[in-house]
Specification:
Layout lengths: L4 H14 L9 H18 L6 H21 L13 H7 L17
Helix pairs in contact: 1-2, 1-3
C-alpha cells in the first residue's frame, strides 16, 4: 500500500498554498510551523504501508518550494550562509522532513 498519485498531488497543492507568493509577509518561523504541521498530519495518515517513495517526493518538493519562497521575499535573492548548502540552511529553520520524523520509519520499499 502506497499513497496514490492523486493524494500526493493534493498534498502538493496544500503545500503550494502555504508557500504561495501571497504569503511572503508571513514570518519564517510561522511559515515553517505551518509546513511542519501539514507534513506531520499527512505523514500520520499515510504512515501505513510503504510510503517511502511518496515521502521522498514530498520532502524534495517542500525543500524546493521553501527555497523559491525565500528567494522571492526580497528584491535581493536569499542565499545560504557561506560554507553551508541549501539543505543544511533549510534544516536550520526547523523544517521537519517526512523521512526524518521520529517513529514514522516506513519499511523499505
Amino acid at each position: 500500500m502506497i499513497p496514490s498519485a492523486k493524494a500526493v498531488e493534493r498534498e502538493r497543492e496544500k503545500l503550494r498554498a502555504i508557500t504561495d507568493a501571497s504569503r511572503s509577509h508571513v514570518p519564517l518561523p510561522q511559515l515553517v510551523n505551518s509546513l511542519n504541521r501539514q507534513l506531520e498530519g499527512w505523514a500520520n495518515y499515510f504512515s501505513y504501508g510503504y510510503p517511502r517513495g511518496a515521502w521522498w517526493e514530498i520532502d524534495w518538493f517542500v525543500r524546493n518550494r521553501l527555497i523559491v519562497h525565500l528567494q522571492r521575499r526580497s528584491q535581493r535573492p536569499h542565499r545560504p550562509p557561506k560554507g553551508a548548502g541549501w539543505y543544511e540552511h533549510i534544516q536550520s529553520f526547523g523544517l521537519k522532513l517526512l523521512n526524518k520524523l521520529p517513529g514514522k520509519r516506513p519499511e523499505p520499499a
